[in-house]
Specification:
alpha+beta
């Protein structure tokens, strides 16, 4: 059977609720071709900062539901790449702290 199994749907819904309570958004890859990179995978986006987690894989989605659960269980998330991305997926400039004195 292609797509999500009946057992995965309630788990995805539960993880979405947990993510939302912690100010994250669980996003599922919208690709419909099972051979496409990212098909059936997820990423988490911090709704406060726009940081994206799980984007190291080709296509920008690199987490299965087990990995999403593990990240949410850990509490504080660390971005998966050195370049942060905005909510629209574009690279964002990092702020630098300088002493002007």
């Amino acid at each position: 059977m292609l797509g999500m199994s009946h057992a995965e749907k309630p788990r995805e819904a539960t993880l979405r609720k947990i993510a939302r309570r912690r100010d994250y958004r669980l996003e599922r890859c919208r690709r419909r071709d099972p051979q496409a990179s990212g098909f059936g995978l997820y990423r988490l986006t911090d709704t406060r900062t726009g940081e994206v987690y799980g984007v190291d894989a080709p296509g920008g989605y690199g987490l299965d539901l087990d990995a999403v659960a593990a990240l949410l269980d850990r509490g504080r998330l660390v971005p998966s790449s050195t370049t942060s991305t905005s909510r629209r997926g574009r690279p964002r400039d990092k702020e630098t702290n300088r002493d002007d004195s």
